[in-house]
Amino acid sequence: AKPIIIDCDPGADDAIALFLALAFPEQLNVLGVTTVAGNVPLNLTQKNARCLCELAGRSELPIYAGCSRPLLRPLITAEDIHGRTGLDGISLPEPQMPLQAQHAVDFLIETLLQATEPITLATLGPLTNIAVAIVKEPAICQHIKEIVMMGGALTQGNITPSAEFNLYVDPHAAHVVATAGIPLTMMGLDVTHQAIATPERLSAIRAIHSPISAAMLGLLAYYGARDMQRYGFSGPPLHDPCVIAYLLQPDLFTSRRAHVAIETSSELTMGRTVVDWWHLTEPLTNTNVVETIKADAFYQLLTHAIAKLSQG
Ligand code: BDR
Ligand code: CA
């Protein structure tokens, strides 16, 4: 199984991404889950990660709390989409599984430096933890097989017309990550907006009737209502699960290499991913930019995951 660390800010779509990742231990060996401030503050993202892993029957997984604010900018959260708790639409019991004492950044550094094979990082939130780890111990870079990040947009942003939420929250961290020389895959909004959770695509999950499927549908009912209202979609886009699907089944996606830079100075375009398809300013590429997803097959994979996880 591929060793991975999941860095996240649950969040409704982060929750579903965790379920997807934990359903296939024979393919993904999740070494730990690190949490960051993003959709909601850190005290909630770390707690939510524990609630979700416990619900998925994985209470032995180590969960770490990382950075409680972005590098330079004040924290911006997304309670309007994910609710006050970050997981509105469901109510889970207080988690029994512990929060690890070690800081997420130190866990990342220690685990990467000790790794006998390169580790993949799946990033589902602002990139603060990853950037701080790189700055604190640059030697980790050679131990990272790849970073697959949910973030960025080739066309429209979702927090400003220019920027996608995760990169807008901490554009400076994204800049550190994009310039570190680590293989980077960008799963931006142009892809995730192809992965709409329409009622038809959810019907097989609706038929499962387990605590996990109920949690997923409860989260989507809350998060979906808000996202659909705002954008006029026929269901909510499942951003973060696309990252995990890419690790499980890369042939569901197409991508092209390009140079990607992150805007960190203009307020109007702060956090924008500037993609240089035509080598206008950069001869070299630093990013594998994902462009398309086979959405129906993605929902089949997700359905399989929820069914598998529901069986325990
Ligand atoms: C990203 O922002 C968050 O609200 C979601 O969890 C996802 O990671 C989408 O822009
Ligand atoms: Ca997220």
From TrEMBL:
<dbReference type="GO" id="GO:0045437">
    <property type="term" value="F:uridine nucleosidase activity"/>
</dbReference>
<dbReference type="InterPro" id="IPR015910">
    <property type="entry name" value="I/U_nuclsd_hydro_CS"/>
</dbReference>
<keyword id="KW-0326">Glycosidase</keyword>
<dbReference type="GO" id="GO:0005829">
    <property type="term" value="C:cytosol"/>
</dbReference>
<feature type="domain" description="Inosine/uridine-preferring nucleoside hydrolase">
    <location>
        <begin position="4"/>
        <end position="300"/>
    </location>
</feature>
<dbReference type="Pfam" id="PF01156">
    <property type="entry name" value="IU_nuc_hydro"/>
</dbReference>
<dbReference type="InterPro" id="IPR001910">
    <property type="entry name" value="Inosine/uridine_hydrolase_dom"/>
</dbReference>
<protein>
    <submittedName>
        <fullName>Nucleoside hydrolase</fullName>
    </submittedName>
</protein>
<dbReference type="InterPro" id="IPR023186">
    <property type="entry name" value="IUNH"/>
</dbReference>
<dbReference type="GO" id="GO:0008477">
    <property type="term" value="F:purine nucleosidase activity"/>
</dbReference>
<keyword id="KW-0378">Hydrolase</keyword>
<dbReference type="InterPro" id="IPR036452">
    <property type="entry name" value="Ribo_hydro-like"/>
</dbReference>
<dbReference type="GO" id="GO:0006152">
    <property type="term" value="P:purine nucleoside catabolic process"/>
</dbReference>
